[in-house]
């Protein structure tokens, strides 16, 4: 059945291509080169899609698109951008046959006419309170090297997020972790090389107004668009250190040894900003704001040294990580960072934070800061800490030291488990107890993920990406009852996973509800898991299966779906056929033993 669907898609795409080439004008150069429609099965197009994009090989001057539904014709709104035409506000209905008619004129006067027939898919359950899903919206190589040429739209991330807000909402993304928006030591820095936390691309400092991602105005416009689509936005807060002081502001400082040295610890003058926002007229970020450094201009590299009168802070792991280490025993620093946190929420409009390198920051201060921001803002603030600890015992101890039950952490122990999945050495049955997401008392304090901007790099600096069986890992985190799962931008947009991740997001958005059940017959090769569904929302619930196998055979397991006499199909399209459960809810569910297609998510047909 799957093969016939693939064949059908191929024929449909060919038909689309023939229709287009058949109707074009005398200049046979003008043609459609890419269509979002081609990504979907034209026989069962997802009716919840609100927009498609068509791309031509010449710039488009004029376009008219209409949608025929039986006798009715409706004009489709379009946005033309160079060679791309985006069709918006489609408002399709389930199980209807449509014809899309597009008449396009290029700026050189060439004309093209196309007709595409498609039928929309089944209807999905109406969910009152949809699942939450996070996306990390950047990666290390963004807007650099070959990526800059290949993805020119990423040259201004804030504008791109504003533009993609509706698409992201449409596939079920409910929150975004965006990169550090503050001025760093140079324009193209990722944001972790903090220069001034209050300059979000607003002032001419460090030879630039904008940051790598755009200006403050563009950022706030993006937040506004994202909020308009119901998406929350989280700031990547870098508290641990500051870097290089713009490479220009050297000052005299005194080490604990009494030695006078020159260091990059002078984070002023605040060109343009002056005393805007912070109390920069009352105190300044000079060496007194820091605990120590591992470099002096006149000495070169050295072992991390305290400044005179300083001691390292009360941190979970060693206080010193890199650059100029911030002193959280300094009252001015504490006060300013608390005010800054409230400003980011109240004035800029963010909804929460990701805390960078948090195990190297004073734990008492994190408690104090979070309590202050929660108290001084009207929002229910979300906070996730990057405490890079790869065993559940260690991460649990870390959380015991943070006195705030709203505080969540990235599930690094779960990611560590996925390294075994990658290598094919995993005992799949052990996935029932892997990571913080399965640790009693901490299950909902876990942000589950597979790769991020540190692990998902082309050139490995920390950990190699989970580049094998990544869909199996996504299936696991996206169907789970607990944890907030995260999708990584680079997987989605750069590494060609968008189409298959969208299917998993669909399963999460409409079916992954109700209590989760471990099955009794997991083994070293296959892991299955059941969501019972919502009692008051028929058609919800699922059976997910992931395989580590490579034989190409099908594994069949008798599983209690908890839903008697119900017909299921695999929404991912990887497994063929239907499964009908018996009067006790049991059915023979399947998954293929294959790296590239070894996952299935069985959902009720209606
Ligand atoms: Ca530190
Ligand atoms: Ca200190
Ligand atoms: Ca410190």
TrEMBL record:
Asked if the Swiss-Prot or TrEMBL record annotates the protein with the keyword Hydrolase, the reply is yes
- Ranges in coiled-coil conformation: none
Q: Which GO terms describe its molecular function?
A: alpha-amylase activity; cation binding
Hydrolase recorded as keyword: yes
What catalytic reaction does the record list? Endohydrolysis of (1->4)-alpha-D-glucosidic linkages in polysaccharides containing three or more (1->4)-alpha-linked D-glucose units
What's a single GO BP term from this record? carbohydrate metabolic process
Q: Which residues form the signal peptide?
A: none
Top EC class per UniProt? hydrolase
Q: Where is the Glycosyl hydrolase family 13 catalytic domain?
A: 132-508
Enzyme Commission no: 3.2.1.1
This protein's source sits in the domain of life called: Bacteria
Keywords for this protein? Carbohydrate metabolism, Glycosidase, Hydrolase
Family the UniProt entry places it in: Belongs to the glycosyl hydrolase 13 family.
Put simply, this protein is called Alpha-amylase
Species source reads Orenia metallireducens
């Amino acid at each position: 059945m799957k093969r016939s669907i693939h064949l059908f898609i191929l024929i449909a795409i060919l038909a689309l291509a023939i229709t287009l080439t058949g109707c074009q004008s005398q200049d046979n150069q003008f043609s459609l080169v890419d269509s979002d429609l081609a990504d979907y099965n034209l026989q069962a197009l997802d009716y919840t899609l609100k927009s498609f994009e068509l791309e031509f090989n010449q710039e488009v001057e004029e376009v008219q698109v209409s949608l025929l539904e039986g006798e009715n014709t409706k004009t489709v709104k379009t946005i033309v951008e160079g060679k791309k035409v985006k069709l918006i506000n489609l408002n399709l209905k389930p199980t209807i046959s449509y014809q899309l008619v597009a008449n396009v004129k290029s700026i050189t006067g060439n004309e093209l006419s196309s007709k595409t027939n498609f039928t929309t898919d089944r209807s999905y359950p109406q969910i009152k309170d949809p699942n939450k899903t996070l996306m990390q919206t950047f990666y290390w190589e963004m807007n650099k090297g070959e990526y800059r040429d290949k993805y020119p739209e990423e040259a201004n991330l804030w504008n791109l997020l504003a533009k993609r807000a509706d698409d992201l909402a449409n596939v079920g993304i409910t929150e975004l972790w965006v990169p550090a928006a503050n001025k760093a030591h140079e324009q193209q820095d990722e944001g972790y090389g903090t220069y001034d936390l209050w300059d979000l691309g607003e002032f001419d400092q460090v030879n630039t107004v904008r940051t790598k991602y755009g200006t403050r105005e563009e950022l706030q416009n993006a937040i506004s668009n994202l909020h308009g689509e119901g998406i929350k936005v989280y700031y990547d807060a870098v508290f641990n250190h500051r870097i290089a002081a713009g490479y220009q502001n050297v000052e005299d400082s005194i080490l604990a040894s009494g030695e006078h040295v020159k260091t990059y610890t002078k984070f002023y003058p605040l060109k343009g900003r002056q005393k805007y926002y912070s109390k920069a007229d009352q105190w300044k970020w000079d060496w007194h704001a820091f605990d120590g450094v591992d470099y002096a201009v006149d000495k070169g590299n050295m072992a991390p040294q305290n400044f005179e009168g300083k001691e390292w802070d009360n941190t979970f792991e060693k206080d010193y990580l890199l650059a100029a280490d911030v002193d959280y025993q300094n009252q001015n620093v504490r006060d300013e960072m608390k005010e800054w946190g409230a400003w980011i929420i109240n004035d800029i409009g963010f909804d929460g934070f990701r805390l960078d390198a948090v195990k190297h920051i004073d734990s008492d201060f994190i408690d104090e800061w979070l309590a202050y921001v929660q108290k001084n803002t009207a929002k229910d603030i979300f906070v996730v800490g990057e405490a890079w600890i790869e065993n559940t015992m260690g991460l649990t101890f870390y959380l015991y030291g943070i006195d705030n039950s709203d505080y969540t952490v990235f599930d690094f122990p779960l990611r560590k488990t996925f390294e075994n999945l990658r290598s094919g050495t995993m005992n799949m049955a052990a996935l029932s107890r892997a990571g913080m997401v399965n640790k009693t008392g901490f299950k909902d304090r876990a942000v589950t993920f597979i790769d991020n901007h540190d692990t998902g790099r082309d050139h490995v600096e920390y950990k190699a990406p989970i580049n094998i069986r990544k869909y199996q890992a996504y299936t696991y985190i996206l169907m789970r009852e607990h944890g907030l799962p995260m999708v990584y931008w680079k997987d989605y947009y750069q590494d060609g996973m968008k189409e298959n991740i969208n299917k998993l997001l669909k399963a999460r958005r409409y079916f992954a509800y109700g209590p989760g059940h471990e099955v009794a017959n997991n083994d070293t090769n296959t892991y299955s898991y059941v969501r019972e569904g919502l009692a008051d929302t028929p058609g919800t619930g699922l059976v997910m299966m992931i395989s580590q196998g490579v034989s190409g055979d099908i594994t069949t397991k008798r599983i209690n779906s908890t839903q008697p006499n119900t017909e299921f199909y695999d929404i991912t399209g990887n497994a063929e056929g239907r499964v009908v459960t018996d009067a006790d809810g049991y059915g023979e569910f399947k998954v293929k033993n294959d790296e590239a297609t070894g996952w299935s998510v069985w959902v009720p047909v209606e």
